[in-house]
Design goal:
Layout: H1 2-5, E1 26-29, E2 33-37, H2 42-46, H3 49-54, H4 56-62, H5 68-73, H6 76-81, H7 90-95, E3 99-103, E4 108-112, H8 113-116, E5 117-119, E6 122-123, E7 130-136, E8 143-151, E9 158-169, E10 172-181, E11 188-189, H9 191-197, H10 204-217, H11 228-249
Antiparallel strand pairs: 1-2, 2-7, 3-4, 3-7, 5-6, 8-9, 9-10, 10-11
Amino acid sequence: MVLMMRRKITPTRVVNISRISSLNFINYDEKRGLRLGALASLRSIERSAAIRKNFPLLFDATRVLGSVQIRNMATIGGNLCNASPAADTAPPLLALDAHVVIASQHNRREIPLESFFLGPGKTGLLPGEILTEIDVETVPFDTKTGFVKLGRTPTDISKASAGVLLQSQAGICQQVRIALGAVAPTPIRARKAVELLKNKKICHELIEEVAKQASDEAKPIDDIRSTARWRKEAIKYLVKSLLRRMWEMAPF
């Protein structure tokens, strides 16, 4: 709709799917995990007790996306299918290793969310396909997560964002995922930065090294919201602050 209002696209037909009730759901089961229908509103996700308790990473990102009015209208599927590098729900879902379910009249397939994004405004949807569902596995109870974004105003699109998931055992980092938004052609996972943390005991020096590596993996551009140089520094700050917060909450 935004692209139509800006006259960037002029489709001859528009299909309204908002009344397909079977695509509007939030289901959580401890064994299966979280299932989100593509038409679940961001406001309903924000107000879900199950998500707030079991997936605080997604809750933190949703509650700072736009205004309440926007979240009442916007859907999780729409935020992802818009394929903006700055989509606020993308980094937390990437950090949660989410998968998406795609369906057409004759086929149904599931792919990692990371493979869904192909470029700015481009997804892996083929002609005749729609996104129907987002699936996230249950997060172990000893996992720490966090999301933070920087924007010009509280309701503005992100200039840079980061989501982190970290699980440790006996003080050693086991499962680690770092996802970045608004600093590359698509939302990305900082895989090289993660490798620096795996099977190591976290400390100030390691946090600095990981944050720098995450910044190095970012490929931002200059645009009307910010500069590439600023975004590089912002990612370093965001990743560093998230890891420090997790460390201070439960020292390793």
